[in-house]
Structure formats: C-alpha cells, structure tokens
Amino acid sequence: MFDFPDFLQFSITEPIDQAVAWLLQNLSGFFDAITAVIVVLFNVIQAGLLFVPWFVYVIAVLYFGIKFHGIRQGITLGIMMTLIGVFGLWDSMIYTLVIVIISVLVSLVIGLPLGIAMAKNARTQSILKPLLDGMQTMPSFVYLIPAVMLFGLGRVPAVFATTIWRYRH
Asked: Is this model's pTM higher than 0.85 or not?
C-alpha cells in the first residue's frame, strides 16, 4: 500500500539505449568526421601555442596585465604565469587553453548564425529559447554524458562540454 504502484512506473532506459545504439550504428561516420576535424584543429592549435617560448607568454601577460589592470596586478599575473611553469603545469595549461580556444570558435560558428536567426525570426526564437532556457537549469556535467557516449573519452567530449557550458553563460 505504501509502495508506488508498478503499473504506473515507466522505464526510459530501454528507449534511450536503443536510440544511442542506433546513432552509433548509423551515424558513426558523422561522429568520426567531427572527431577527426576537432583532433586536427586541436593538434594544430596546440603545436602553434607550444611553438611560442614560455617567456613570451609571461612577458605578454605581464605587459597586458600592467596596461589594463595596473602595475600591481600585472606583476602578480606575471608571477602567477611563471609559477605555472615552475610547478610543471605548462603543458596542462596549454592543453586547457586549446580546449577553450576551440570551444570559443565552435560557439562562434554555431552561436552567431543562431543568434542572428533568433533575432530576425520569431519562430526560430520560439523554438530555440525554451531549449536554451532548459539548458541553463541543468548541471554542467550533464552535457558531458552524451558527448562521452557519442565520442568516447578525451579531447573531443571536453571541447563539446566546454562549448555547451559557454552557451549556458
């Protein structure tokens, strides 16, 4: 009597599993192509960023920090940038920076046309606005689940999760 009745319960796991299996079976070439493009873009940007010597980044951060935030904050930023390398986190910083750069590029490529379409067309806005509003109510890591299911682990789902996170904010 105190348990929820069985006949009112509905499991959505089976339809979701079937939908994901269908996507992976029928659209694997599409997902592989997206993965290949992102991996190539990732490698090119990472190689370009790693080509620049570390001290150039420190000097640039120091200069722009002083120019835009004053000498005290600029020096603090320069010291913090140097400490990243001192603690052996330079490659991790570059890796994260590449993910952010690609996510911003993807956000621009998708967001600008959609934003213009939403501004010019009330129907497009009425379709996309509830979707975007719903996305803002979900925790950030919820977006990582479909990316991992479709693209596996690694750089590509990180780019997708970061891109979707950028849309939320």
From this structure: no
